Amino acid sequence: MMLHGSRGTRKLPGTMTPAIHFTASPAAPAQAALAQLSARYGHAALDEAAVVVALGGDGFMLQTLHATEGRDLPVYGMNRGTVGFLMNSYAEADLPARLAAAEETIINPLRMHATCANGNTQEALAINEVSLLREGPQAAKLRIHVDGRLRMEELVCDGVLVSTPAGSTAYNYSAHGPILPINSEVLALTAIAPFRPRRWRGALLPKGADVLVEVLNPERRPVMADADSRSVRHVTSVRIRSSGSIRHRLLFDPGHGLEERLLREQFV
Fold first, then answer.
1. CATH of the domain at 232
2. Which of 42, 106, 108, 219 makes the best surface tag, with the fewest CB within 10 Å?
């Protein structure tokens, strides 16, 4: 694992254990693990840490990555939740050795810029996906531009999403979108329950694509935007781009990294 580099190697006083900042979801198993691991390995303040260990499920991992944005700290997850796609298996023993042997994957989030019906704008980052979803009983009507060029005049659907490779097995996959190799440098644009064009399932876009989705008739067919469960209601347009200037460093046990997990998901 890269505990060196620009941040230097940080150790807890008098030990060979890297300075670990533990964080845990409110769930009882995660809190119990937090107490056990902190007692065994120490618990460094975030500003003094060389690595963050997140205890919980995938949702908590996303929270942790957002909370440590800009710190350039590697994050190693251990599953104390449910799905755990972004997590490693839990074990109390040999944590320093696992951290030293861990493989690093770097991912970039999506940046969402949403314009609302009242003229306000909001921005948010998404590690998994940015989605637009109908708010009312009627289907949404959307117009899609890619890199300033109109690509779809009208999409009638429950919604549409743009997914990163890291998020392609989450909501994107449930919406019948493709699983993307982690190093593929592409994004998935996936329709959610499309009605017209009925058989349109989406498109693969270059990672650097600038996607603009306009909401048609937003008064009668209101739409909300969502970036990793951070929602903006009554949007009229949403611009989505990969944010290459922000990176998240995820650590996985050897042979169990995101590339292997994404491949394995396709042969279940």
1. 2.60.200.30
2. 219
**pLDDT tens-digit profile of 227-252?**
998 999 999 999 999 999 999 999 99
Q: How far apart are CA 134 and CA 160, in angstroms?
A: 9
pTM score, two decimals? 0.86
Question: Which CATH number covers residue 251?
Answer: 3.40.50.10330
Q: Identify which of 210, 192, 225 has the alpha carbon closest to the alpha carbon of residue 114.
A: 225
Token readout for 90 is 């839990």
Q: Which domain holds residue 206?
A: 110-242
Annotated binding site for NAD(+): 58-59, 128-129, 158, 166, 169-174, 193
Q: How many domains does the chain have?
A: 2
Catalytic residues: 58
